[in-house]
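Session log. Operator J.P. requested a structure for one protein chain; no other inputs attached. Running the standard single-chain path with token output.
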Amino acid sequence: AMWSSVSTTITNAFAAMGKIKINLKLMLMWTALTWILTPLLMSKYGYNGVALASALVASSSIIPMIILKRMLSVKLFSNVWPQLLSALLMGIFLKWLLSLLVIGHWILVIPLIAAGAILYFAFIFILTGKKLINELRSVKQLVI
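Structure written below.
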């Protein structure tokens, strides 16, 4: 999902720049990869082959990133590392918390989701601080 969200954003950027031919070539590549890899890997590995084919096609989404990087000066990692690190820290903490709790009690799902959201936003605030506050202010100005 992460790869597709990034590649979708990048293909939208290509469309906005009038580079539709790049999008067409990427779509043809992804379609061909899907049609070729899925039957081949499925016949060899069964359902796991379908998953592997899907993972390989998704990993090819790095190609639009490389193309965009050649066209523009884009600092992708510097813009996403706080979110990635926050998600990783939240996941580690929730995994640890789940190991302490009795599994199978559905009543704990909502508090765990709330704890995850609080942790994620706390880590985002710790990592980005001023930038987050400035972005919230700009959103507030747009809404009000």
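Operator note: The mean pLDDT is 88.
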